[in-house]
Q: What sequence folds into this?
């Protein structure tokens, strides 16, 4: 399946991936409203990892054998056999953090209220995920990757 | 005759069904479950009591799970006897179910220590949905005002929070000196204890309940408890939340080997051919302790069930093991604890600790030969999984040891070779 992969040598650490992800996952899809007035506050599902001079962005890998799906206590985290996506249903999520405990990538976050988790959904409906489309230095690519 | 028979329909049973169906789409599967209700998440029963989740939300698989997986589900039926020669499981009422491959996933039952008055009306255990339903109904029917929770472990703290949310005054009684003593060291425990006390819970440590008292004139109904040292705590409800012990009664007296739980090899097979065991009833492999032992935890039960399922269906699979690992969400204080939390003094172990009192953040790592063997995180858990990966794969952390506890620890901290291997970067 198509996955997002980081080209570490091209990443400038600007963090725009997080900004565009946040906006894409906001209600208003408006950068000013998303950051200033939306409640609950939307969060970025991609995380910029920095260990200077190295930086790169990381988000859910949609693992083939996803430990978060096996570990999920509530059935909120599932593997869609058809699309390969690891999907998360916030209505089923009980916020037990078991997925966070077992994700090797640290790619699952708590939402702003600390009630449920949030993670990358590869921007369903968009041709390319927002972080990839808006990376100014093309340090994120969306392509077929086997894990 | 069913090709596969699974006794128990919780975590391990579900994991096994899914694994079998990955390998064998047609072989007949029969699941025997004492509980009449569909697959639900036992760890969510405290959310039911607090009112945060209804039964619908607690279902961890779809209503059509049995049908979709072509499983004959004998729900609400109890397995009462095993005949290993005949290869049958006997149900209550005498009916027999024959198997080719059998999985024992009977789980655990609450441990209730001997104490006077434990049979009184108002005493509860807290393991199944039925327990939760009965407790919630009782709170309403008697308009309960106060509860004593016996045990300050995972179950104890979850039910304490739920009762508090329902407006009850709660006293938590723990025999050990510290709460959450299997998961936290003294310092982390104190930190969490302060939060729980601040929320209004009365905590008593180093004591247990010696006697449950009945109401004057109505001895059969709970009125309070007497603690080890003689203090009396009035209450309407007592919840025994000490832990679970394996439900081995089905195999007791058969050739299946039992230690504290059912003994299995690394393929989750018992000493009897074609008989497997998984979940809370089993002593499964702990990769930190390097031995098999009881680890009654939901995610591990699913994994063990999967391994058993694959092997039953003919796909040879080895269980890589789990360890004592839990994440907690209670009292607004996220906690992750994996492996050794509170090891005894040992020159072979190196302990790294960081405590940020201002943010109430606590991080602790235990290393052995530069491999992480223990991880405790309080109020800062989002990268827990990265450390767990390093633990599980026994990766030598010597080169980046000083960064493991820093706030920006993450994938970027790891060597590039490992980042590539994990397919993080190209």
A:
């Amino acid at each position: 399946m198509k996955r997002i992969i980081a080209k570490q040598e091209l990443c400038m650490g600007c963090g725009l991936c997080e900004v565009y992800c946040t906006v894409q996952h906001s209600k208003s899809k408006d950068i000013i409203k998303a950051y200033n007035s939306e409640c609950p506050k939307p969060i970025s599902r991609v995380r910029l990892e920095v260990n200077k001079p190295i930086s790169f962005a990381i988000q859910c890998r949609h693992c083939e054998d996803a430990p978060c799906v096996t570990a999920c206590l509530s059935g909120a985290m599932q593997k869609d056999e058809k699309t390969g996506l690891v999907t998360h249903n916030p209505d089923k999520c009980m916020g037990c953090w078991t997925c966070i405990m077992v994700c090797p990538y640290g790619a699952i976050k708590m939402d702003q209220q600390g009630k449920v988790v949030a993670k990358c959904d590869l921007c369903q409906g968009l041709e390319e995920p927002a972080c990839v489309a808006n990376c100014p230095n093309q340090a994120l690519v969306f392509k077929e990757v086997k894990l | 005759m069913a090709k596969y028979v699974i006794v128990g329909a919780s975590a391990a049973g579900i994991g096994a069904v899914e694994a079998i169906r990955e390998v064998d789409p047609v072989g007949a599967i029969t699941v025997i479950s004492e509980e009449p209700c569909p697959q639900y998440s036992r760890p969510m029963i405290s959310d039911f009591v607090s009112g945060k989740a209804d039964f619908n939300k607690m279902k961890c698989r779809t209503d059509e799970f049995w049908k979709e997986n072509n499983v004959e589900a004998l729900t609400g039926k109890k397995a009462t006897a095993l005949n290993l020669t005949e290869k049958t499981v006997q149900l209550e009422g005498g009916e027999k179910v024959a198997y080719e491959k059998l999985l024992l996933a009977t789980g655990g039952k609450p441990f209730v220590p001997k104490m006077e008055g434990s049979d009184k009306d108002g005493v509860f255990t807290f393991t199944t949905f039925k327990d939760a339903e009965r407790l919630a109904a009782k709170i309403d029917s008697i308009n309960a005002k106060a509860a004593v929770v016996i045990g300050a472990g995972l179950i104890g703290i979850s039910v304490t929070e739920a009762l508090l949310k329902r407006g009850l005054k709660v006293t938590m009684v723990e025999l050990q000196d510290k709460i959450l003593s299997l998961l936290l060291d003294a310092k982390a425990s104190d930190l969490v204890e302060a939060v729980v006390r601040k929320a209004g819970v009365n905590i008593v440590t180093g004591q247990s309940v010696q006697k449950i008292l009945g109401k004057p004139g109505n001895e059969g109904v709970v009125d309070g408890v007497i603690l080890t040292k003689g203090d009396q705590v009035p209450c309407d409800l007592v919840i025994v939340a000490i832990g679970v012990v394996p439900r081995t009664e089905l195999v007791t007296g058969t050739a299946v080997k039992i230690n504290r739980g059912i003994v299995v090899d690394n393929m989750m097979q018992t000493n009897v051919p074609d008989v497997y065991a998984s979940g809370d009833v089993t002593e499964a492999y702990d990769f930190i302790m390097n031995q098999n032992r009881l680890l009654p935890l939901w995610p591990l039960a699913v994994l063990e069930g999967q391994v058993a399922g694959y092997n039953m269906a003919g796909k040879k699979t080895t269980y890589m093991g789990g360890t004592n690992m839990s994440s907690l969400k209670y009292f607004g204080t996220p906690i992750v604890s994996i492996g050794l939390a509170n090891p005894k003094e040992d020159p072979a172990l190196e302990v790294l600790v960081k405590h940020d009192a201002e943010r109430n953040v606590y991080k602790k790592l235990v290393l052995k030969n530069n491999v992480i063997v223990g991880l405790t995180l309080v109020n800062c858990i989002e990268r827990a999984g990265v450390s767990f990966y390093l633990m599980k794969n026994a990766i030598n952390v010597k080169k980046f040891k000083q960064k493991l506890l820093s706030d920006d620890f993450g994938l970027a901290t790891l060597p590039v070779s490992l980042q590539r291997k994990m397919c993080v970067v190209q």
